[in-house]
Structures are given as structure tokens and as C-alpha cells.
Amino acid sequence: MTTSPKTAIVLGTGLGQLASEITDRYEFPYQEIPNFPVSTVEGHSGKLIFGKLGGVDIMAMQGRFHFYEGYSMKDVTFPVRVMYELGIETLFVSNAAGGMNPDFKIGDLMIITDHINFFPEHPLRGKNFPTGPRFPDMHETYDHNLIAEAEEIAKEKGIKLQHGVYVGVQGPTFETPAEYKMYRILGGDAVGMSTVPEVIVAHHCGIKTFGISVITDLGGFDVPVEVSHEEVQEAANMAQPLMTAIMREMIARAESIEAHNKEQFNTAHPTEEWKSQK
Ligand code: HPA
What pLDDT score does 267 carry? Predict the structure, then answer.
């Protein structure tokens, strides 16, 4: 059996359950893949899973690499480079995030409409890879067709969705009340410690991206609120069924969205010309 997925998913917080739904699977532990970063925590090595989800060929990353763990930006984003080489065209990501928008509640799902990159090192720093331009345009980093599809699915299923700007920070500390306030003033709706590096590299590779945050804690309002890793996990687990329902359906429709995009514009993605220079 062969598989040639055009869709990849990073099984971040809130999406662990989806891994068990992948059928016809091949698994590659990270330590068996040349140059792949390997987790230093024993028993948490992670793997790439290839298989089918809702009839669609899929590549799933179970276990991601965070900058706060000590990985370089090149390590954190290496899996996305692998996705590109394997022909991935659409990437789905999820994460846990702290909400600063006063309309948000714990357990809300937030579609990421844009991001602010607060990581201290840029993932594209260094010699430019010929997958995209030296100075990439970022005006639509999160694909509007995928966002529209998610909204439709959520409506059909009666799931409430928030929308907002995700601020990517290095961690590992959660924010001080003053920091939450600052990120709010700067235009953020939620803050978290992942996603932005992978999305930047995916965008540079011409891979369309869709991201959802589960709001696991709140900050930046007048009352300072304590936050712990356990509470974040608990809130993420509560939201998991809804997040999973949306992503499962988006993946099932991913190939038709891709076909629709190609038909609608009838031209290659702008980065195709960069790909052809490789
Ligand atoms: N801040 C940063 N990262 C997070 C948070 C937060 O409040 N919640 C979950 N991940």
C-alpha cells in the first residue's frame, strides 16, 4: 500500500485523540528519521504517522518540539521542511493558549486569524531556503478558505468559535499580569508557546495553514489569575471533543477545498515559481 498525503496535522494540545483514529497506518519514531530532532524526555519520543483519516491520506506529527525545551529554531521547524519535501499542501495545527480577550472563556476554541511573532529568534534567519523568497509576504498567513470552511463546519455542528490573533512567545513562564496586558494592548487575543515558528516555515514553503487554539486560561484582566500546567491540560481535555470534531471534518473536506482553490484561481500558488527554481 502506498500513501501520498497532501494534508498534514500537528497533533498539539487538544488533538491527541485524533491520532487513534488514523487507519492503514505506518509509524516512524522520530529517532529513526535522519536529522529529526529527538525528544530528551524518555517515553515521549514522538512519531510521524502516515495513514488515512476520514478517507483522506494524512501525515500526522505526534509530539512537537518547543523552543523552550532548548531546541533550535531549525530543529523546531525541521518537520515542516520534511512535510514540504513529501508534497504536503495543507497543514493543520492546534495549541493551548492563554486568553487576553475579555470576551473569551476557558474552554473556548479560537480560530487563529493572524499572529504576532515574539520569539527571540526568527525561524527563517540564515541562508534562505529556495522554497520561498528572502522576504516573504505575510498578509494572509492563515488561509481564508480554510477559515471559512471551519466556520461552516462549526455552524453545522452548533460549535461556538472565537476568532483572534495568536501571540507566539518563547515561554516557559506563563505571562505576568503586566505581560498579558501588554500583549492585549499590542493586538493579541491569546498567547502561547508554539505554532508561530512552524506556521512561518510552512508559509514560506507555500503550504496553506489553518490553526486553532483552545483557551485554557485567562489573563490580562483586572483580576490576576493563577495558572498551572495541570489546569491548562484539564481545560484542553474538556475542549478536545469539539476541537477534534472540527479538525476531523476539515481534513475530510481538505482535498475538495484544495481542488476548489485551484479551480477558483486557476493559477499556481505564488510560491510555485520558487519551488520550480529548486
Ligand atoms: N501563556 C502561554 N502559553 C500558554 C498559556 C498562557 O497563558 N496557556 C497555555 N499555553
Answer: 47
